[in-house]
UniProtKB/TrEMBL annotation:
PROSITE patterns: HTH_MARR_2
Pfam family, one: MarR_2
Organism, as annotated: Dyadobacter psychrotolerans
Residues annotated as domain HTH marR-type: 12-147
UniProt xrefs under InterPro entries: HTH_MarR-typ, MarR/SlyA-like, WH-like_DNA-bd_sf, WH_DNA-bd_sf
GO MF annotations in UniProt: DNA-binding transcription factor activity
This protein's name: MarR family transcriptional regulator
Biological processes, Gene Ontology terms: response to stress
Length: 151
């Protein structure tokens, strides 16, 4: 019985649980901030918008899926919702009619700029609780974890 409790406690302190908790809290806070700002986008859709925002030219749904390492059907749902809401434009690729090219509308660009400002403010609010050295160390640990996982 004691061994089972030790395993539970060990699992509670695991990387997966800790990162999962932080991710849920960040998304919850971001959704709250987006709502307060009157931005009709869910935090889960933000990565799709931002991938398109940071690309110079239109991008395919498959490219978005590859960059975000998500399945194409999930990206399709987000893209369609964001198109319906007026933030993304979907056009057929002239060279390959099977592909859709995704780009931002004027409203999409405006919303991305507001989201970027919100994200930076949120980042600053969290990071102000750490010294400069702690921030650098924390971010380097996250980079190292990502590199180890990607091996």
């Amino acid at each position: 019985m004691k061994e089972c409790m030790d395993k539970r406690e060990e699992m509670k302190g695991s990387l997966q649980i800790k990162l999962g908790t932080v991710t849920r809290l960040v998304f919850k806070k971001m959704n709250s901030e987006l709502t307060l700002e009157g931005i009709p986008v869910m935090a889960e859709q933000v990565p799709v918008l931002m991938v398109v925002y940071f690309k110079e030219n239109a991008i395919t749904q498959q490219d978005i899926a590859n960059i975000l390492q998500k399945d194409k059907s999930g990206i399709l749902r987000s893209v369609q919702t964001l198109q319906k809401d007026g933030f993304l434009k979907i056009e057929s690729d002239i060279e390959d009619k099977r592909k859709n090219l995704i780009s931002l509308t004027t409203s999409g660009k405006f919303v991305c700029e507001k989201i970027q400002a919100l994200a930076m403010t949120f980042n600053d609010q969290i990071m102000e609780h750490f010294s400069e050295e702690e921030r650098k160390l924390f971010l380097s640990f996250l980079d190292r974890v990502a590199a180890i996982i990607e091996k």
